[in-house]
TrEMBL record:
<keyword id="KW-1133">Transmembrane helix</keyword>
<protein>
    <recommendedName>
        <fullName>glucuronosyltransferase</fullName>
        <ecNumber>2.4.1.17</ecNumber>
    </recommendedName>
</protein>
<keyword id="KW-0808">Transferase</keyword>
<dbReference type="InterPro" id="IPR050271">
    <property type="entry name" value="UDP-glycosyltransferase"/>
</dbReference>
<comment type="similarity">
    <text>Belongs to the UDP-glycosyltransferase family.</text>
</comment>
<keyword id="KW-0328">Glycosyltransferase</keyword>
<keyword id="KW-0732">Signal</keyword>
<keyword id="KW-0812">Transmembrane</keyword>
<dbReference type="GO" id="GO:0016020">
    <property type="term" value="C:membrane"/>
</dbReference>
<feature type="transmembrane region" description="Helical">
    <location>
        <begin position="434"/>
        <end position="458"/>
    </location>
</feature>
<keyword id="KW-0472">Membrane</keyword>
<dbReference type="GO" id="GO:0015020">
    <property type="term" value="F:glucuronosyltransferase activity"/>
</dbReference>
<dbReference type="InterPro" id="IPR002213">
    <property type="entry name" value="UDP_glucos_trans"/>
</dbReference>
<dbReference type="Pfam" id="PF00201">
    <property type="entry name" value="UDPGT"/>
</dbReference>
């Protein structure tokens, strides 16, 4: 007890700040991420309020914060709920082509989500008035929820920081102003954020140039304190020599996978009698494609992090959601990445680059021989295991932990507010200036003039010498 008190005194040596974490409840991984951020701030002694208006009902059953007790909910309007229903468990993800051309569509979708959330907030001003009394120093939110800007103004919060659950944010700046409804959100104010936290980690991600305002805290939501696995899981892991986990996250459901892919996956698994396959599968219709195959264990829910952390688990197959990618990277398990949509394509390439993972296209899952081949590689080729372990070692021994980076920068932002000195001047430049096209043009013109001058000079000299020769 004494030790904890001293510890608490040590960590709360800075002034406590009032911080509002705004995270509408629409995605499991988003709420996990923001819940973790809230808890880190609470643990450090700050007064944190997590404001999480509901969009997708089913996530109300989860508690995303452990230490943060001040969690404020708000029910959705029927329209907002209807938009939310489009998100989870959509079977079209398995067949739909995801390329650049879906970005405007996705962007419009999130804009409508933010617009409707804005309407819900404006209809609940008494709740906002209660929040206002808490005199927040800082609000933290994700860029897609642009309605946080008018919320921040209403609550008279002077500073904000952005946090992204993705590794690289580009889509939201794509939003057009062609729709007059969108004009209520001053998007051009987003760059005023004191800091922009991204769920990207320099030891995992592609190297790239960035500015000091970008703080990379990728992997922060991967908790290393794993609970003990239950007896039933313990028994399952002890059944065979190796264990292989298959899970596609909470939005993309295995039960919606095309039937021929399920058959092909099950047939591939049958080739490994020495391996138990644990498959997160959300239905009980498995006898249609896996009947008689002994080594597959279907489960509607899995303790993913605990399983990945267990030494008996050999490999993992995932959709490449960033939460899963961060987890498997930290836990150091070889993996098969089967990206389905959105940023998963990028996350996949990012992880495969470290040589501990293999990518397989979702359209190739019907090819049983190929599935078997990649499974065999990650299960039995030691080089994948070694590479995955090396990445894990790097992540666990980062010079500055994502948690420290987040905490120190958030406290700095709460204390000093908007940090215009971190704004690069390039933001005010036009395309010509930014890419130095003006400079290149001037140099080119000078060079051309010089060449022409030399050409005519040479010509003149030649003529003169010819004349001279003639005269001689
Ligand atoms: C934080 O919350 C506690 C308890 O609600 C309150 O006593 C304290 O004044 C708050 N701190 C600040 C800085 O507002
Ligand atoms: C992955 O393997 C390739 C080819 O062997 C190698 O060039 C590259 O450096 C490796 N990448 C890492 C991160 O070790």
């Amino acid at each position: 007890m004494k030790h904890t008190t001293i510890f608490l005194l040590l960590i709360s040596s800075t002034t406590p700040y009032n911080i509002l974490v705004f995270c509408p409840l629409f995605g499991h991984s988003h709420s996990t991420f923001f819940g973790r951020l809230a808890d880190i701030l609470t643990e450090a002694g700050h007064n944190v309020t997590m404001f999480t208006p509901t969009i997708v009902d089913e996530f109300r059953n989860f508690s995303y914060t452990k230490l943060t007790k001040d969690v404020v909910y708000l029910d959705p309007s029927p329209k907002l709920k209807a938009i939310g229903d489009l998100i989870a468990g959509n079977s079209r993800y398995w067949n739909q082509e995801f390329s650049l051309n879906v970005i405007p569509e996705t962007s419009r979708f999130f804009q409508s989500l933010a617009n409707e959330q804005h309407n819900v907030l404006s209809e609940n001003l008494p709740l906002l008035d209660e929040l206002k009394k808490k005199n927040f120093d800082l609000i933290l939110f994700e860029t897609i929820f642009t309605c946080a800007i008018p919320l921040m103004d209403y609550l008279e919060i002077k500073a904000f920081a952005l946090a992204h659950t993705v590794a690289f944010e580009a889509s939201n700046y794509y939003t057009s102003y062609s729709n007059p409804e969108e004009r209520i959100y001053p998007l051009q104010r987003l760059p005023d954020a004191s800091f922009v936290f991204t769920n990207s980690n320099p030891y995992l991600d592609f190297p790239r140039a960035t500015i000091a305002k970008n703080i990379q805290i990728g992997g922060i939501s991967v908790s290393m304190e794993t609970r003990k696995l239950g007896e039933e899981w313990d028994r399952i892991l002890n059944l065979r020599n190796k264990n292989f986990l298959i899970a596609f996250g909470s939005v993309i459901l295995s039960k919606d996978m095309p039937f021929e892919s399920k058959v092909s996956m099950a047939r591939a698994m049958k080739q490994f009698p020495d391996v138990t396959f644990i498959w997160k599968y959300e239905d009980s219709d498995t006898d249609k494609f896996a009947e008689g195959i002994q080594n597959i264990h279907f489960s509607k829910w899995i303790p993913q992090r605990e399983l990945l952390a267990d030494a008996r688990l050999s490999a993992f197959m995932t959709h490449g959601g960033l939460g899963s990618v961060n987890e498997v990277s930290c836990m150091g398990k070889p993996s098969i990445m089967c990206p389905i949509m959105g940023d998963q394509m990028r996350n996949t390439k990012m992880l495969v680059r470290h040589n501990g993972s293999i990518e397989i296209s979702k359209y190739d899952l019907g090819n049983s021989d190929l599935v078997e081949e990649v499974m065999r590689k990650v299960l039995y080729d030691e080089s994948y295991k070694i590479a995955a372990q090396r990445l894990s070692d790097h992540l666990r021994n980062q010079p500055v932990s994502p948690k420290d980076l987040f905490l120190k920068h958030t406290e700095f932002a709460a204390r000093f507010g908007k940090l215009s000195s971190l704004d690069p001047y390039s933001r005010q430049m036009g395309v010509l200036e930014y890419f130095m096209i003006d400079l290149v043009l001037i140099v080119t013109v000078i060079l051309v003039i010089l060449c022409l001058f030399l050409y005519f000079l040479l010509k003149l000299v030649c003529k003169m010498s010819e004349k001279k020769m003639k005269v001689e």
